[in-house]
């Protein structure tokens, strides 16, 4: 079911959000004795319901902790949403306007559960949308995030290139967009040689998904890595490294979630979404180390590791993205382990040569609690991706600056203004409003930044 706010608002239970630094004055007088009896002092994530004369819940106190504690995380209201008894609630006091939007989004996201393969969990308490927020916008963003999570969480047995195409078709129909698909051997005459090469060893045909929406405004093209499962190819991954490879289409899942937000909010842009959807498998026709591939752009690539396949399929899609002169191209991919080593699983590293774009994305991420971190397109490392026998090396030796060299590789295929995100797409441990499993990263930061990125 879609994530949604409560519509029955008449009997909503008031919530008082209590800053631990101001607990003495913030706890309502009618609840002070009850709070003291239960030792409630506004600790972060603590919840206390206060009964009325009839024994029913008259109000709820939600601990908001100290400013220092809050700064160490986000979506704190998601914890309260999961802990409160069932019912309908409204935020009555304790949050300023800047915090209400995050709190409302946190509440909706706390209601997300991936139940495709098990008995559905009971729904959490419902929230009346706080006054002063755009409830429809928040719900649209939450459901875009839910789409991303669902796609990543679905195992490869049920989320191959066929099923990813079905998901894009459903999104296309929901928003009256258009979709063009090039599949299997048709990729060869259409000049997508590297998408075909990476996916040809699988029994599930590779394809390029090309969705368009909007008739006027600046053009934004989103390119998402859609490797539905990655064995590593002939450079096969060890079992421990293959265990999470259902999430290797996390870039595609994230751009689809972002596309849902953009279209659902009816932003005044022309949107294009390109997803090279493949499975990197092993068979007699699998591509090999030392093979040299010719890309759509004409650049040749020496294959020094078949497990560095994401940049190959993205390269052909990025070349296509350039061909109708977009105002901005953004790629998202679960591309390198080096990015995780650099910033961990919670930050979304991104690359751009444009300082104004970088500032807009950083500001957007801070505004909507979607943390990002700019990484450098470090030109001196260009030599590391030039093998000598071909134009480019898909897996430079040495192991240094892996996320930077991968980003530099992709930049070779784009002439338009370009931003690249190397995301993780996975929540290793449960956190407020983010259960362990697939998670969107960077999409809300980009959404918040779009007015500046595209001069809307």
From TrEMBL:
GO BP term, pick one: proteolysis
Keywords: Aminopeptidase, Hydrolase, Manganese, Protease
Gene3D superfamilies: Leucine Aminopeptidase, subunit E, domain 1 (3.40.220.10), Zn peptidases (3.40.630.10)
One Gene Ontology term, aspect cellular component: cytoplasm
Source domain of life: Bacteria
The Cytosol aminopeptidase domain, residue ranges: 305-312
One of the record's GO molecular function terms: manganese ion binding
Family: Belongs to the peptidase M17 family.
Protein name per its UniProtKB record: Leucyl aminopeptidase family protein
Lineage, top ranks: Bacteria, Pseudomonadati, Pseudomonadota, Alphaproteobacteria, Rhodobacterales
């Amino acid at each position: 079911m879609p994530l949604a706010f409560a519509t029955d608002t008449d009997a909503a239970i008031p919530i008082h959000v209590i800053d631990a630094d101001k607990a003495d004055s913030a706890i309502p007088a009618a609840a002070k004795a009850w709070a003291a009896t239960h030792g409630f002092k506004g600790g972060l994530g603590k919840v206390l319901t206060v009964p009325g004369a009839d024994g029913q819940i008259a109000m709820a106190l939600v601990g908001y902790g100290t400013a220092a504690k809050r700064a160490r995380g986000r979506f704190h209201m998601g914890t309260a949403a999961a802990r409160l008894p069932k019912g309908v609630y409204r935020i009555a006091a304790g949050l300023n306007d800047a915090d209400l939007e995050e709190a409302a989004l946190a509440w909706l996201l706390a209601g997300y559960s991936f139940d495709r393969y098990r008995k559905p969990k009971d729904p959490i308490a419902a929230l009346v949308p706080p006054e002063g927020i755009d409830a429809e916008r928040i719900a649209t963003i939450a459901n875009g995030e839910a789409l991303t999570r669902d796609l990543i969480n679905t195992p490869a047995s049920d989320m191959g290139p066929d099923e990813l195409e079905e998901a894009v078709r459903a999104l296309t129909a929901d928003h009256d967009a258009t979709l063009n698909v090039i599949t299997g051997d048709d990729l060869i005459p259409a000049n997508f040689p590297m998408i075909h090469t990476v996916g040809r060893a699988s029994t599930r045909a590779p394809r390029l998904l090309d969705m368009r929406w909007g008739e006027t405004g600046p053009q934004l093209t989103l390119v998402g890595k859609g490797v539905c499962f990655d064995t590593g190819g002939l450079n096969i991954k060890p079992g421990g490294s293959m265990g999470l490879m259902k999430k290797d289409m996390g870039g595609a899942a994230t751009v689809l979630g972002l596309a849902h937000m953009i279209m659902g909010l009816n932003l005044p842009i022309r949107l294009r979404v390109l997803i090279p959807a493949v499975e990197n498998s092993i068979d007699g026709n699998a591509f090999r180390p030392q093979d040299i591939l010719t890309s759509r752009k004409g650049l040749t690539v020496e294959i020094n590791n078949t497990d560095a396949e994401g940049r190959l399929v993205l390269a052909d899609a990025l070349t296509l993205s350039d061909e109708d002169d977009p105002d901005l191209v953004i790629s998202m991919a679960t591309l390198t382990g080096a990015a995780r080593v650099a910033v961990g699983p919670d930050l979304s590293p991104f690359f751009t040569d444009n300082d104004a774009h970088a500032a807009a994305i950083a500001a957007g991420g801070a505004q909507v609690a979607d943390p990002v971190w700019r990484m450098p397109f470090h030109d001196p490392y260009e030599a590391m991706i030039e093998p000598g026998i071909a134009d480019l090396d898909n897996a430079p030796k040495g192991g240094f600056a892996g996320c930077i060299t991968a980003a530099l590789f992709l930049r070779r295929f784009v002439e338009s203004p370009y931003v690249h995100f190397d995301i993780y797409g996975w929540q290793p441990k449960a956190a407020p409003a983010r259960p362990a499993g697939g998670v969107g990263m960077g999409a809300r930061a980009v959404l918040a930044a779009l007015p500046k990125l595209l001069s809307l």
